[in-house]
Amino acid sequence: MYGRILAAVNEHLNSEVAARYALHLARVCGAKFYLCFVTDKDTPPAVFDHAQEAMKRLFVEAEKTGIKAESITRTGLAVEEIAAIVRNERIDIVFAATRREDVERRFYAGTVARSLSLKLPCSVALARVVHMGKMRPTKILVPLKARISQVRERAWFTAKMAECCNAKVVAFHAIKPITSFFHGEIHLTPYEWEKRLPEGVSGFMEYLRKYEIEHEGRLLPGKTARSITIEAAAKRHDLIIMGASERSLLTTLIKGSPVEEVLRETPCDLIILKPRHED
């Protein structure tokens, strides 16, 4: 599915960490690994040098592990230049690190990360790096909705990320508490909750079984974003993989977005996947 993987690198350390996730994925996929840095004419020399040093480190590491790699430096606007590289090189997925503005501002209000997710014709993986020193997760939390679009690519991406790190996957679904008119909230056993897994979650887990990835399903009551962050912290997950929000801008502004909330509060690294490959 991914034969050409691109990592967008800049002068910040978190972009290099995000690129290493892409490098791990390229290794297990047998894919060609591309690195790109987009600068402009006013970029200070120190910034340019930091980015080039990161590119060199990643390029050397790719070569040492037998991965075919190519580095590209362009001058211009980041989103436009990355989009041009994607088209020219027929890139299948782009990795990019989220920036501080994505956390401090409304995630869907004109940030570079949002623009990449919307405008690139390929799949996009946006990584928020929380732990700089842990790039090989052993426990991956995958929050899922009841109905999942492009489930095959999402399961395949998750399986490959788990494979490259020999990690266990927990498919997680937050559901509203079940209540009785006379007795209030009904408490179910873990087995009873398990039987209530939505079809989308069960389908995702079926793909993981097919790919022979160690996994389990968890279904817990509670508000979506808060349940995800509590589960990640309580169970000491190393990485969360979420699907990008499919809500409209108006709905997001009115009701908010679980993806946006998790982006701000995640206790571990987070990858937001925007899949583009058809099932």
Topology:
Layout: E1 4-8, H1 13-29, E2 32-39, H2 45-64, E3 69-75, H3 78-89, E4 93-97, H4 100-104, H5 112-119, E5 123-128, E6 139-143, H6 151-165, E7 168-175, E8 179-180, E9 184-185, H7 190-194, H8 199-210, E10 215-221, H9 224-234, E11 239-243, H10 249-255, H11 258-265, E12 269-274
Parallel strand pairs: 1-2, 1-4, 2-3, 4-5, 6-7, 6-11, 7-10, 11-12
Antiparallel strand pairs: 5-12, 8-9
Describe the overall structure.
With 279 residues, the protein is of the alpha/beta class. The protein has two domains: 1-129, HUPs (Rossmann fold); 130-279, Rossmann fold, CATH 3.40.50.620. 43% of the residues lie in helices and 24% in strands. It is built from eleven helices and twelve strands. A ten-stranded mixed sheet has the order 3-2-1-4-5-12-11-6-7-10, sandwiched between helices. β6, α6 and β7 form a beta-alpha-beta unit. α1 (13-29) packs parallel to α2 (45-64), α3 (78-89) runs parallel beside α5 (112-119) and α9 (224-234) runs parallel beside α11. It is globular. The relative contact order is 0.15. The model is unreliable at 181-188 and 248-254 (pLDDT under 50).
